[in-house]
Each structure stands twice: as C-alpha cells, then as structure tokens.
Input
Amino acid sequence: MLFAVVMMTMMTYMNVGEGLQRVLKSRTEMLSQRMVDWSMGEALAFGSLLKDGVHVRLSGQDVERGTFSHRHHVLHDQNRDRVTYVPLNHLYPQQAEYVVCNSSLSEFAVLGQYIRPCHPLLLSGLQ
Output
C-alpha cells in the first residue's frame, strides 16, 4: 500500500497527463482490493529488494515507460521540461537506490555504458 501512497502523493505536485493519471489511479484501486497485475508485481518485487538494501538498476530500450506502457517507473512532468520523479526511490528512508536507464537495444552497449563497478548488493537487469 505504501507504493500507492507514494504514487498519489507525487500526483499533487506533478502533471503526468490524463492517460497516466488513469493508470496510476487504477493501480491504487487495484492495491486497495489486494490485487496485482504484472507491472504492479514487478514494482512490488523491486520495492522489496530496495527496502532490503539491494541496489536495482534496470537498463534497456524504453524501460522507463516499459514496453507497451506498462511500467511507468520514471514519470515525466508534462508542463516542466526535464522534471522527473522515480516513485521507487521514495518508499523508505534508508532504502537502496533504484536506477532506470533507457538505452539502445544492444546488450553490449548497455554493459559498456551503464554498469558501474559492481556493488556487492547491486542487482542489474537488462531488458
């Protein structure tokens, strides 16, 4: 439920557009009914890893929004240029960092450009 609270709090100071507002509202309703879909399950899994101190880095083509717009892990303000919000970075006071990087489809490019020296608790995902 904390994820839903973070999402709804964000919407008070950021304009994400009407379509995305509907998506976020439906996610909040889904959680209130104790139901999850694929995208919510993914967010909850990442959130639990972050809470446990595991750094998560997701990199690939269109991973901020997600293929077919299911993920929405990086939200962009529609009225202010370059203003973004990553809800999964605001769940817990002492949580690990969540990094989402759009990149080309090449796994070699992703590994060469984005993967920092490995942290012992870094979980990297290529998509």
The beta strands are 55-60, 75-76, 84-85, 98-102, 122-126. The domain at 2-126 is CATH 3.40.50.12470 (Rossmann fold). The first strand starts at residue 55 and ends at 60.
